[in-house]
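Run Putative pre-16S rRNA nuclease through structure prediction, thanks.
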Amino acid sequence: MRLMGVDFGSKRTGLAIGDTSPFFVEPLKTIATEDMASIVRAVTAEIQIEAVEGVVVGLPTSLRGHEGGDTLEQVMDFVRRLSAVAGVPVSTEDERFTSVLAERMHREYGVSSGKKFDRDAVAAALILESHIERLISAVDRISDQPKTTEF
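Sure, done. The structure for Putative pre-16S rRNA nuclease is below.
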């Protein structure tokens, strides 16, 4: 299943693309966030271009696992608007530590490589990777269940 990851931000929104089989995830691009309507249009266009079957949006969660704050309200508004026009299922995934991990990756790998490092798209890839790994793990748990025969 081809999926798109989204790291929504008030100034920049990162996008990533991935697939469950074969499992891969890669940063795609970052879109400058002008206003909610324009970012929804831009992401919807990328959904069509990339022919994805679902979208995963990073959900801001505190270290204690609580959702809240202005950022959450903006993300949920984005999810509602995108769901109404995307034509594919839109879900959310805990995005704790993705920006921190993307920044660490930038310091460790991006600076020395001499290549442009897109933190927002990398954060979107980390969100998507987490989601796909959770999906694969759930399928594995189901397939490991003992088979019973009903009489």
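Residues 60 and 107 are 23 Å apart (CA to CA).
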